[in-house]
Amino acid sequence: MATRKTSSDDLLGPVTLAVGQEDLLLDRAVREVVAAARAADADTDVRDLTSDQLQPGALAELTSPSLFAERKVLIVRNAQDLSAESVKDVKGYLAAPVEDITLVLLHAGGAKGKALLDAARKAGAREVACPKTTKPAERLTFVRQEFRALGRSATPEACQALVDAIGSDLRELASAVTQLTADVDGTIDEAVVGRYYTGRAEASSFNVADRAVEGRTAEALEALRWSLSTGVAPVLVTSALAQGVRAIGKLLTARGGRPADLARELGMPPWKIDRVRQQMRSWTPDGVAVALRAVAEADAGVKGGGDDPEYALEKAVVAVARAARSRRNEY
Questions:
Q1: How far apart are the first and last CA of the chain?
Q2: Close Cβ partners of 262 (under 8 Å, ≥ 6 residues apart)
Q3: CA distances (Å), 79 to each of 6, 11, 96, 111, 112, in order?
Q4: Is 73 within 8 Å of 14 (Cβ atoms)?
């Protein structure tokens, strides 16, 4: 979800500053500028440099007048790692940029190299935010934006199913969206995603969580083993379990009402309200508390607090599934 943070939309302005650590978004920011430059001049000279390649004095040479007066795009990756001398060169250039040259600085953000970041912003650089996506909700927003950018409609359930199936890699998510829009006519729904990505969806961490919060112990353990065997990180499983149990807890304590009203109150999409309502039938508040403690213990185990992350996950899955039947166990 690369977003521009300045009012300038001039792709061929003197400086573009792409800030963040999401490689896909950084690459897109670069491609966008290069495409605009080549649309203006097919002979545009593009130089793509790492921070260690931009030695002191190199920028002056690269931006010196050309005999052929060609347009140039200079890309500097990992600009936060530039040497102090090179940073001084870039700051000098920012004060007096050369016409028909676009400098693209890729910066990770943060404290390292902040002086260069501040200087570029002060110079009025066009800025593109390329943050690392760390939350499922951010990946869901990314998928929705990808479908929208391609002019296609996808249901909320389809977007969620795609995130559940693919995981956290934005390149793979973008590729999946492109494939679906190329192969499928009309609105893309959950059934379509299931046909294309059944194997991956069944191996996902969210499938483990869904089976566990539904009290289906054997199926949850089977999904867990499959998930781990296909390379899903244990921490993603504990995260999915925590989200599933918290959703149950929120709905258990919420006032009754229509899905749309509850969605606004709880911060969930209406379709998820319906799903959680079905999952929570045999839950009690005490069961939620027990399950959350089990998931917290597993989370500590997979993050280095235990010797066997797989065993920690299995214990958590069994505990959550047992808690999911807590109302039945009262009788």
A1: 50
A2: 251, 254, 268, 270, 273
A3: 20, 19, 19, 12, 10
A4: no
The Cα 91–Cα 80 span in angstroms is 13
> Across the chain, where does the E strand assignment appear?
3-4, 15-20, 45-50, 72-77, 101-107, 126-130
pLDDT at 131 over 60: yes
**What are φ and ψ of residue 116, in 5° steps?**
-65, -40
Q: What is the pLDDT of residue 197?
A: 79
DSSP 131: P
Give kind and range of the element (H or E) at residue 326: helix 326-329
More confident residue, 226 or 144: 144
For the entire predicted model, the pTM comes to 0.61
**Which residues on neighbouring strands pair with residue 101, listed in sequence order?**
72
- 24 closest CA partner among 176, 158, 165: 176
**280-291 confidence digits (pLDDT tens):** 888 999 999 999
Cα-based angle 186, 190, 192 (whole degrees, multiple of 5)? 55
